[in-house]
Write a structure and sequence with these properties.
33% of the residues are buried. The two termini are 43 Å apart. By secondary structure, this protein is of the alpha+beta class. 24% of the residues lie in helices and 22% in strands. The chain contains 10 helices and 23 strands.
Length: 456
């Protein structure tokens, strides 16, 4: 049986998009009755089409190599660097064949683009025109570093050679990554809204549901062409950036955003997520956890969250494989992991909790966020001042009620929306007919448990 729909992926080298090129693709999409499109983690365009209309996109599909880069951040998030826009484009020109591997090209001080999510990862060194190379075999998470830095002119030739060896699983001499590449502390810049730089503005556009209306993007392309804005930029956060907007042209952008009701000032704790492409379940999980963050007023600056395996994140949530295909969504369980230093580029993961129900993810991840800040706030910037001017605050233990049968919890702060129990409803005010939301155990059987001693 033939699939009724087909996913079209169109790569944009390094995240650079020509407005004219994008406009031609969007016009084909309209012909194919497509009303919305998405951008992916690899700075590509993703279009869901019917199998009958898929051939219309044949001239645009995957003939450009799968290269992501920190180019969109140059000049707005990265400054005083030898890696100029011209050098980026020289490197892209060397990588101009139809590579079967994923390639990353990044500034070493960048924290906007993942370093190691490619198979060939080129990272600018401290000396001009010298690069670190970190490589990874397909279907493997183990990283290896080339034992010496390489000159810009060698990138194309060596990449071609290594692609063949990696695809054939041939041994390549490498060294531990941590000996070669010093990772910068991770701080994700706020990449949305209108922002002033030099005499220009840049505009970042993020969509909560990831969908961009085709008609909106067509209007965006027309403004770019009218104002001679030659490039747009797709980001690894599935957003768009438009740079070099002149003051006199800002009303055009304000009008377009208003016409389509595009919001451009979302909370920072919603913007620091990496979600697999075309995965509605992962988006639902993200929204669920963010609602908890909002209710609990959780700080997440300096952290990055991801859902699913092989994602870029300092805290990673993965769904456990269900034993049976018919398992209900309420019975799904998740694992929570984090990187040793909470830097999403680290690659190594430490297990924090296993077999966690969806309704408990928010509280556990909140605890992990607090652990992150405790680790990073051990040094007193004013020695002795805080201790001398503040009274010690005794820790307040939080208690919840846990079902002894399936270990689900009732958290008074969260309530139980699925059973019409509002947040902040005390346990002793629950109706007599209340049951465990998972196994339907009686409310009288629940045990009061200290949060720090929860059984999972």
């Amino acid at each position: 049986m033939l699939k009724k729909t087909q996913t079209i992926q169109i790569n944009f080298t390094g995240g650079i998009i020509s407005p004219g090129h994008l406009l031609s693709i969007l016009e084909i999409a309209e012909t194919a009755k497509v009303s919305e499109v998405r951008f992916g983690q690899r700075q590509q365009l993703i279009i869901e089409v019917s199998s009958q209309t898929a051939p219309l996109f044949a001239d645009h599909v995957s003939k450009t190599p799968n290269i992501i880069s920190s180019y969109p951040a140059t000049g707005i998030f990265i400054s005083n660097t030898w890696l100029s826009e011209g050098i980026y484009k020289d490197v892209f020109e060397m990588l101009n064949w139809e590579s079967k591997l994923k390639i990353n090209v990044c500034d070493s001080r960048n924290t906007f683009t993942p370093f190691f999510t490619g198979h060939l990862n080129w990272i600018a060194g401290a000396q001009p025109n010298y690069w670190h190379l970190v490589f990874r075999y397909p279907k493997s998470n183990q990283l290896f570093a080339w034992p010496e830095q390489l000159y810009t002119n060698h990138i194309g030739e060596l990449s071609r050679q290594l692609e063949t060896q990696l695809l054939n699983n041939e041994p390549i001499q490498g060294v531990p990554v941590e000996k070669e590449v010093k990772l910068p502390d991770f701080h994700l810049p706020y990449y949305e809204g209108f922002n002033k730089y030099d005499q220009y503005y840049w505009l970042g556009i993020y969509r909560r549901d990831e969908y961009f209306p085709v008609s909106f993007l067509k209007g965006l392309c027309h403004i770019c062409l009218e104002t001679k804005t030659g490039q747009l930029y797709a980001t690894p956060w599935k957003s768009l950036i438009i740079r070099n907007i002149e003051q006199e042209h800002r009303p055009l952008w304000d009008y377009l955003l208003g016409k389509y009701g595009i919001n451009v000032r979302h909370a920072a704790n919603e913007l620091n997520w990496q979600i697999p492409d075309n995965n509605e379940d992962a988006l639902v999980l993200k929204r669920h956890i963010i609602r908890h963050f909002d209710n609990a007023d959780v700080r997440t600056y300096g952290l990055c969250f991801s859902v699913g395996h092989h994602c870029f994140g300092s805290i990673v949530i993965t769904q456990q494989e269900a034993k049976y295909k018919t398992v209900l969504k309420g019975q799904l369980r998740y694992d929570i992991s984090y990187t040793p230093d909470f830097n999403p580029n680290s690659g190594t993961l430490i297990n924090y909790r296993s077999g966690v129900a969806k309704e408990h993810l928010g509280p556990y991840i909140t605890s992990l966020c607090k652990y992150f800040y405790e680790r990073h706030n051990t040094d007193d910037p004013l020695p002795g001042y805080v201790a001398a001017h503040t009274a010690p605050i005794p820790p307040v233990e939080k208690y919840v009620h846990q079902c002894p049968a399936c270990l689900s919890i009732y958290d008074e702060q969260v309530g139980d929306p699925d059973q019409s129990i509002a947040p902040n409803t005390p346990f002793d005010q629950l109706p007599d007919h209340y049951q465990c939301s998972l196994c339907e155990g009686p409310v009288k059987a629940f045990n009061k448990v200290a949060y720090s001693a929860l059984l999972v």
